[in-house]
Structures are given as structure tokens and as C-alpha cells.
């Protein structure tokens, strides 16, 4: 696993002459994003989806799926014949500037029989738990899983970002900003992070945000960390930043003071 560093490669989105921009992305020594699905991630397992191998005597397969914005009441699981499980979720619009998202993917086993599949979600991270029994008599089946060779999306910085393989509707980016009446509405995906593990402050005219996500289950390799910034601002012209961390998304309202 590559380590993040303060590389001399470009670390900011193209400056907007009309306003602030995102910067301080997590860049590795090779000049690439540490996590190609989230440019602000600095450590931990990468990828929006992770299949966790079955332990020899466990007879359970786990799949981690990041679903930022999805609350427990909007998560669902459906089983089909032929060892196929469909897991989906809806991320509702919470406030002005939001865009809802829809997730959905099916997971199949090639040669084991499924029994009692379960799903749980916490802080925007869903865990699909699939108990298996002895091998199927019908032989190997193809798995109807999301494309693990995620479609690449060319970023304007000549880096490569990948879209979420299980997201079927809504914004593909993991961060964004919008000018609203009060100032700037900013959101950043931080799957696994809680309000207690997220900090927001102002340094040198930039709004700096950091977050830490602990392991959502004992089967994950480790937690994850996030860090980035948005600006610059004239700090004399912005008010107290309002933050909300819910279901794996950091939302910020950066108010602008009226000209006197």
C-alpha cells in the first residue's frame, strides 16, 4: 500500500478566478492519488467497494460498500435464486445544495450456496454478510457483481479518478461546493467518519477539514483518514462555519458577511 506524502506534484483543483477551490489532495510519492475514488483520503483501505475473503473455518463472506448519505432506514437487501443478493440504498436530500444519490449492486457466489444474507450500515459504510453452506451441486456460476474494473474518469489535473461502481444515480464526485444565498455550501464524503472524529478550522485563509474513520467491522484491514482544504477566503468576510457530519458525509456552510 502506497504512503501519502507532500509530493511536489499539483495538489489542487484548477483555481476558479471567481471563487475558492479545493486543494491539498492526498498524493503519493509517485504523484498519484492515494485513493482514486476519494482524493482526500490519506490512509487505510482504498476503493469504494471491498470484498473480504472468507476465512477457512468462518463460512462467511463479507463485502464492504461505501454508501455515503444512506441512513439505516433507506438501506435494503433482496435475495434472488441462483445465489444472488442485491443490496441497495438511497441517500436523500438533506439540505439546500444536496443532490440525492442511489446505490445498487448484486453479488453472487460461483460455487457455494447462500443462506441468511444480512446487511448493516453505519456512518455511510454498508457491510453485506453472506453465510455459505457446502458447494452447489450445479457447479460454478458467474458472479453478477459490480464491475471491479471501475470506469476511469479523466480529471483536469491529469490524474485519474474512478467513479463509484455501485452508484446508479446522483453526483459521481466525492466532494463539491455550491454558491448559496448565505455563502458556500461544501460537502465531502468521509465514509466511516463520525462527528467526534471530524474537525474543521481556518488556516491561512483556507477552511481545513480532517476526519478519521474507525473500522466498521473486525474484518476490515484498518480505518481511514481524510484531509483537505477549501479556499482561499478573506477571513474578515466569513462568519462562523456550520458543520454537519451524518451518514459518512461532512457538510459545511461557510457564511459570507454582508458588506458594510
Automatic annotation (TrEMBL):
**Matches recorded under SUPFAM superfamilies:** HSP20-like chaperones
Q: By its UniProt entry, which InterPro entries does this protein fall under?
A: A-crystallin/Hsp20_dom (IPR002068), HSP14.7/HSP23.5/HSP23.6-like (IPR044656), HSP20-like_chaperone (IPR008978)
Which Gene3D superfamilies does the entry mention? 2.60.40.790
| Domain named SHSP: residues | 166-260
Q: What is the lineage of its organism?
A: Eukaryota, Viridiplantae, Streptophyta, Embryophyta, Tracheophyta
Give me the ranges of the annotated region Disordered: 1-21
UniProt similarity note: Belongs to the small heat shock protein (HSP20) family.
Organism's domain of life? Answer: Eukaryota
Its recorded name reads SHSP domain-containing protein
Ranges of compositional bias, category Low complexity: 1-11
Amino acid at each position: 500500500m502506497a504512503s501519502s506524502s507532500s509530493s511536489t506534484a499539483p495538489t489542487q483543483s484548477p483555481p476558479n478566478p471567481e471563487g475558492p477551490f479545493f486543494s491539498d489532495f492526498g498524493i503519493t510519492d509517485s504523484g498519484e492519488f492515494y485513493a482514486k475514488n476519494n482524493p482526500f483520503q490519506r490512509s487505510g483501505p482504498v476503493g469504494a467497494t471491498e470484498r473480504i475473503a472468507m476465512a477457512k473455518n468462518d463460512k462467511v463472506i463479507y463485502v464492504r460498500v461505501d454508501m455515503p448519505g444512506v441512513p439505516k432506514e433507506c438501506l435494503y437487501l433482496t435475495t434472488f435464486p441462483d445465489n444472488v443478493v442485491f443490496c441497495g440504498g438511497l441517500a436523500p436530500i438533506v439540505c439546500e445544495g444536496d443532490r440525492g444519490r442511489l446505490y445498487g449492486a448484486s453479488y453472487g457466489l460461483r460455487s457455494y450456496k447462500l443462506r441468511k444474507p444480512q446487511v448493516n450500515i453505519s456512518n455511510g459504510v454498508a457491510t453485506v454478510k453472506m453465510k455459505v453452506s457446502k458447494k452447489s451441486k450445479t457447479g460454478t456460476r458467474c458472479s453478477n457483481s459490480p464491475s471491479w474494473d471501475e470506469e476511469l474518469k479523466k480529471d483536469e489535473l491529469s490524474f485519474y479518478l474512478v467513479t463509484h461502481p455501485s452508484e446508479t444515480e446522483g453526483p459521481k464526485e466525492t466532494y463539491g461546493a455550491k454558491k448559496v444565498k448565505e455563502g458556500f455550501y461544501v460537502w465531502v464524503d468521509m465514509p466511516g467518519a463520525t462527528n467526534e472524529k471530524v474537525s474543521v478550522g481556518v488556516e491561512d485563509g483556507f477552511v481545513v477539514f480532517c476526519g478519521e474513520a474507525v473500522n466498521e467491522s473486525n474484518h476490515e484491514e484498518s480505518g481511514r483518514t481524510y484531509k483537505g482544504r477549501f479556499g482561499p477566503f478573506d477571513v474578515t468576510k466569513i462568519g462562523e462555519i456550520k458543520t454537519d457530519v451524518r451518514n459518512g458525509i461532512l457538510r459545511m456552510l461557510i457564511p459570507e458577511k454582508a458588506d458594510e
